[in-house]
Amino acid sequence: MTQQRAIKRAIKHGIDNKIALRVAIYLRVSTEEQGQQQISIPAQRSRCVAYCEARDWSIYDFYIDEGHSGKTLDRPDMQRLMKDAALKKFDLVLVWKLDRLSRRQQHMMYLIEDVFCCGPDEALRKVDLASVTENIDTTTTMGRAMIGIIAVFAQLERETIVERTIMAREEAAKQGRFLGGPALYGYEYDPAKKLLMINPLEAETVRYIYDEYLKGDRGYTVIADALNARKVPGPEVSWWYSMAVSRVLKNATYAGLVEHKGKLFKGKHEGIVTRDEWERVQRIMGRNNRFAPNGHNQGLLSGIIYCGECGARVRFKPTGMYKGRPRLSYVCYSVDKGSRHLIKDPYCPSHHFKAEKIEKRVEEELMMISHNPDLFRQALQDRLDRTTEGEDTEAAVAQAQKELEDVKRRIKKWQDAFEIDDDFSLADLRERTNELRERRLYLEEKIQAYQEAQTAKKEAAATGDALEEIMAEFPRVWDNEDFDGRRRMLLGIVDKVFLYKDGSVKFEWV
Predict the structure, then answer these.
(1) Is 23 helix (H, G, I), strand (E, B) or coil?
(2) CA torsion angle for 493, 499, 502, 505 (degrees, to 10)?
(3) Strand, helix or coil at 394?
(4) Whole-model pTM above 0.85?
(5) 3-class SS string, 26-71
(6) Are residues 138 and 282 in the same domain?
(7) Which pLDDT tens digit goes with each residue over 333-362?
(8) Domain residues for 235?
(9) Catalytic residues
């Protein structure tokens, strides 16, 4: 809006023509633009503020999206700007450049026509729009047309940047250069040389993982357990897990290669393992995945199955060959003895179970429970009783709070006595109140424990209702799910499956 237009609007509403327009200033910079000073947040801000001061406009608020791309409107302060515009909290939106709002023509026109309503009809208009670097006046037909043209070029610029980025990454891959992102476990990035450099300590762990896997009888979990037993910190957290091991084994970077869009290029960095070792690992992984149920290298019950005899975890693993295929089994870690720290009882009476048989038994048990609502309700009630067994927590909380108030009054009483009685020493005060303070701490801890028990009771009851609804639909949904879908279902309703030496199973619900 021009200054003349602002004056006209002020006169129309019977206000002094020196009224200050309320202006919302929108600022944005994407991650890749952070280093460019001409479009940094401080630079945009100073230019917009100076623009307002020159026109005696009043700044309503700053809306700042730092580190957000212009390809989407799903940005925190953009969403806030849109909501405030709908409520007409300001008269005009000011930007340093229109592409700060969006780099997509579709989004730009949506903001102008539907959000800001910068059309010719004054009755429908919510707010106007202005740009510091572009001569924009949305109150005129030509101004709105200019915005459309600028929006087209903003989108073209964005698409050109994307195309150049894709081409640059492909060329970098062909040249064997690191494609960016956080440095890989086993390496450190040298910004001066623009090269991945081997971290000797972590590289030893990478070599150990490859050596163990190439033995042919070590799975991801076994290797992860061995690393944890040796107290080797993981790449993301302080411990190792199966997927972290899997990622190390799959990544071609460790063989001195750069992978881009499924193609391998010789990298400029030094490999930790040889290309031959990496390719042998890929062949083993492909063979194991092909033999696993539904093409997966984990069991349907992996992570939630425990030994009912000793309480140890139960692992899913190949145990020998049968007709040219691995025999897949569930076996208690105490029986397997592959990871010493996971052994609960070295004399556990459990044994190896055929994976397919146990998974079928779990399915049959769940089907049977789903067809017997009374049985399932009883199981849920037993679970609720275990969660809330003991004293009446509501009554206990009330009693504890009553006693706590009494203790606080007594402490206050002694403190008052100390203030008004000169013969009452600080040592006397400490002696009289120490025991009361200890009692107060004890009661506060008890109240917290009671309140947590009440919360657990409510959560258990709510979860029980949800589980009952899920189990009512279990047969229909289960039959239509693939391996991944069935596994998600199990993880959503079952916390633990206990496997006993006779092959029977019991469930602990979530």
Answers:
(1) strand
(2) -10
(3) helix
(4) no
(5) EEEECHHHCCCHHHCHHHHHHHHHHHHHHCCCEEEEEEEEECCCCC
(6) no
(7) 999 876 777 889 989 999 999 999 999 999
(8) 200-291
(9) 30
